[in-house]
Amino acid sequence: MNDLINGYIPIFAMAQCQVCGAPTPVDRFGCGKCRHCGWYQESHGIQDPDDVIYPNVVSYKKAKALVAQCLPLTPSFDDFIEGLKYYKEMEFEYGAIMYAVCFRRDGVYFSTYNGEALQLYATCADFKAHAHIDDKLLIDIWDNVQNADYM
Ligand SMILES: [Zn+2]
Description:
Elements: E1 4-5, E2 9-10, E3 13-16, E4 23-26, H1 60-68, H2 77-87, E5 89-94, E6 97-104, E7 107-112, E8 117-121, H3 124-130, E9 132-133, E10 136-137, H4 138-141, E11 146-150
Antiparallel strand pairs: 1-2, 3-4, 5-6, 5-11, 6-7, 7-8, 9-10
Bound molecules: zinc ion.
């Protein structure tokens, strides 16, 4: 029982990954990250297969499709925005700079990680259409973004 999940959660049992089927260590609540595909097991089973929900950044159906193509569970820009609606705070890295996106009641705040405000948008749709870094639309450079995740 000295093995750890994510560095701090003791392994309780091995389970079959919900996405790729590989043996996956889980804690006593059934939570754990698959070492093969990266899917965080949903301890109560897959309840919202079309939605990006905690603790993953792609939906279950998207994860299944990516794994079937031997692709990593990397969120598309649309997945990122779905995650933003769910988690309210997301982050990503571009050009060795970390960026933060926060979804608040009064809009979507887009800034660098150190708090330098870049842009404010009224809605997620506005953010998707107009968010930019320098003169490049975020939607156009998304393939070069790394480490997109919730905060
Ligand atoms: Zn897996």
